[in-house]
Write a structure and sequence with these properties.
Layout (H helix, E strand, L loop, with lengths): L1 E2 L10 E5 L6 H15 L4 H21 L7 E7 L5 E8 L20 H8 L2 E8 L6 E10 L4 H7 L5 H14 L5 E4 L5 E4 L4 E4 L3 E5 L4 E5 L3 H18 L3
Antiparallel strand pairs: 1-2, 2-3, 3-4, 4-6, 5-6, 7-8, 8-9, 9-10, 10-11
Helix pairs in contact: 1-2, 2-3, 5-6
Length: 242
């Protein structure tokens, strides 16, 4: 199963692939990452780093997060804090969360995320929801620096209007099980409301305050914005008493 295409990523889109729920998940993830990054103009060295890192994440998802739901592979780009490709593996199991051990990288156990950290520009994990079924779960991700020409290519693309950005973000959130309402005032600024956040869609950026910090993301970063809001929504739900 697949949503999106590599050509969609520079314009604020994403690719989401369903991986097999068996040991072949790692090889499928390596192949999908390589094909996607090649089409996006990444160097051979960057692609090999990504293949190694995603193999560890896919293996970890199967080994430590066994679930009846197959894992998913997601790829999208963000421009803030720096231009990066985000590669994420999602699974529907929240009882086990990965940790980085301070042991020898040759240690058979616990080395996976240490390897991911060594070959990427950043890594992390947070609660999320499936991009294909909206099922709750978690994602583990890493980032890689985008090719040098990428920011210029993105700037040459057709600008995203606030109304279009609001509609796309609203659709992305609803598709992942986050109820959202949208209204636009006379100035053209749209406000998206979930049950946990209000997101302002201004001429150049999304912005919201989650009670601890103020966040601002360019309109091109629709996928990053959606993922952050979904993650906050899920973290809030986990913290709230049932």
């Amino acid at each position: 199963m697949l949503t999106g295409a590599p050509a969609d990523i520079p314009a604020g889109g994403a690719c989401a692939f369903q991986l097999p729920g068996d040991p072949s998940a790692a090889s499928h993830a390596r192949s999908l990452v390589a094909v996607t990054m090649c089409q996006l103009g990444f160097t051979t060295d960057s692609i090999e780093d990504a293949r190694l890192a995603v193999s560890e994440l896919a293996t970890n998802a199967l080994t430590h997060a066994a679930s009846t739901a197959p894992p998913e592979l997601w790829l999208w780009a963000r421009t803030i804090p720096t231009p990066q490709l985000v590669v994420s593996v999602f699974d529907a199991h929240r009882d086990t969360w990965p940790t980085i051990r301070n042991g020898d990288l040759l240690d058979e156990y616990g080395k996976g995320l240490s390897i991911v950290t060594a070959v990427s520009t950043g890594t992390g994990t947070h609660p999320s929801r499936s991009r294909l079924t909206a099922a709750p779960g978690k994602c583990v991700w890493f980032t890689l620096t985008l090719p040098t020409a990428w920011p210029q290519a993105a700037q040459r693309s057709t600008p995203i209007t606030p109304r279009t950005a609001a509609n796309r973000l609203s659709a992305a959130l609803k598709a992942r099980g986050v109820p959202t309402t949208c209204r636009t005032d006379d100035s053209g600024i749209s406000i998206l409301a979930t049950n946990t956040l209000n997101i302002w869609v201004e001429p150049k950026a999304f912005s919201w305050r989650d009670g601890r910090a103020y966040t601002r993301q360019p309109l091109l970063d629709i996928q990053e914005t959606a993922e952050r809001i979904v993650g906050y929504h899920e973290a809030h739900a986990l913290a709230s008493p049932s």
